[in-house]
Amino acid sequence: MVEGFGGNGATGYFLTFAILASVLGIASKLAGGQHLRIWRNDSLAAAGSSSLVAWAVTALAFGLACKEISIGGHRGWRLRVLEAFIIILTFTQLLYLLLIHAGMFSSRYGPGSDTAYGTGIPGTDPVHKGGVTETRV
Known about the structure:
Blueprint (H helix, E strand, L loop, with lengths): L10 H28 L2 H31 L5 H29 L32
């Protein structure tokens, strides 16, 4: 048991995974925001993989929160609020994970495969922009 936190035997592990889940969740949301900004297939892969890892750690924290509730004992109101936040966060992060992965399965929800990485218009051939037509040697 962690001294000074109250709770029961699962409290120390729960707090560790709750902090880890929050940091990974923030990093996942930053990757998702970057994907919304650029909207390319490689940013979709980064956002999808980071959201999967963040959700997995959040699911571990969810399990520990349920274990802590089932063990019982005296838990302060701050610990009960944190347990509630983790339980709610698990389901909202699952929704985020499903929405991010929807773009991987259909181009309707994600970037299309015909989008060029250049600055030109997708589906058009590059043309000569003019300029020097002769060279002197």
